[in-house]
């Protein structure tokens, strides 16, 4: 399993717009992708204009399929990308789960 974590700083005042794009994307992309095991996006009530993406994929091929989908290109690489200041991509491998 491949886990991806993305802390994302949004441009000032873009929280609501970014959340709307993510809500539109989830059913069109991750929800219908066989290898996307989970797609979760968190907000921090103490930190405005910030989102944390936590995603789990069956493997690298599943992640590659996710990021090459039409929905991803339109909504995440397209609309969402224009709303961010910066993001960090952190890969994790599952060690323990229960």
TrEMBL record:
Superkingdom field: Bacteria
PROSITE patterns per UniProt: ABM (PS51725)
Pfam families: ABM
Domain spans labelled ABM: 2-94
InterPro entries: ABM_dom, Dimeric_a/b-barrel
Name this protein carries in UniProt: ABM domain-containing protein
Organism lineage: Bacteria, Bacillati, Actinomycetota, Actinomycetes, Micromonosporales
